[in-house]
Amino acid sequence: TAGYAAGLVMEQEGATEAGFVTGPELDFAVTAFKAFTAGIESVIPDAKTVATYTGDFDDSALGQEAARAQLSEGVELLYPYLGGATDAVASLGAEEGVLSVTPGTDRCDDERFAISSLFSPGELFSGSIQDFADGTLELGVTREFHVGIDPVPSAKICPHVENADQIQAKVDELMQQIGAGEIDPKAESGVEE
User: Fold this and answer.
1) What are the φ/ψ torsions at residue 137 (nearest 5 degrees)?
2) Residue 91 Cα distances to 13, 16, 121, 138, 156, angstroms
3) Nearest-5° angle of CA 41, CA 77, CA 54?
4) Dihedral angle at the C-alpha atoms of 141, 116, 105, 101, nearest 10 degrees?
5) ∠171-120-114 over CA atoms, to 5°?
6) Is the pLDDT assigned to residue 190 strictly greater than 90?
7) pLDDT tens-digit profile of 110-167?
8) Distance between CA atoms of 52 and 63, rounded to whole angstroms?
């Protein structure tokens, strides 16, 4: 959904290149990049995406170095899929007039970000605690969260983005289709579980 949202924002801006800056080349980061790319390509089939694995989620200098290299190659939207280095990369992008995607939390009050990709561990944990309190989750049972059914994971278009409401409506429609089983995101993205 974050890739689809990014694709819609990029399409509106006439952009065709997105960068993904992350830490170590771990399976979950590689999978996130593949899914991000598939989402963008569902909107802009000839889009170009590039990933840089810095080896560290929190090293701001490494993150900025990777983002600087991507920006010099024409990247027009950044996804700093990072931890402590997120703000440094987003700031560098903003200096170049390039918006970013947040990794995990709602940062739409910060104009450096165009999209909030929502998968905050705190919100996931809070949802599990609420389910447990309601008696719908038992100890030792895995709690799965589903796009289009649960509040998180989700994607939010930041209100300062032009036509944010119209873009958000398209993102919400996609998430509802995923939740209803009309779209299989793993099959669409080629990402294995």
Assistant:
1) -135, 130
2) 19, 21, 24, 43, 20
3) 100
4) 110
5) 45
6) no
7) 999 999 999 877 777 888 888 889 998 888 888 888 899 988 899 999 999 999 999 9
8) 9
Residue with tokens 């059914």: 149
Q: What is the pTM of this model?
A: 0.91
* Pairing relationship of beta strands 99-104 and 48-53 according to DSSP bridges: unpaired
Q: In 3D, which of 112, 101, 190 has the Cα closest to residue 154?
A: 101
Amino acid at 51: A
Half-sphere exposure of 100 (CA within 13 A, CB side): 32
Predicted confidence (pLDDT) per residue in 2-23, tens digit: 999 999 999 999 999 999 999 9
Are the C-beta atoms of residues 164 and 157 closer than 8 Å to each other? yes
My answer on whether omega of the bond before 24 falls inside 30° of 0, hence cis, is no
Tell me how far apart the alpha carbons of residues 148 and 171 are, in angstroms, rounded to a whole number. Answer: 10
Q: Mean pLDDT over all residues of the chain? A: 94
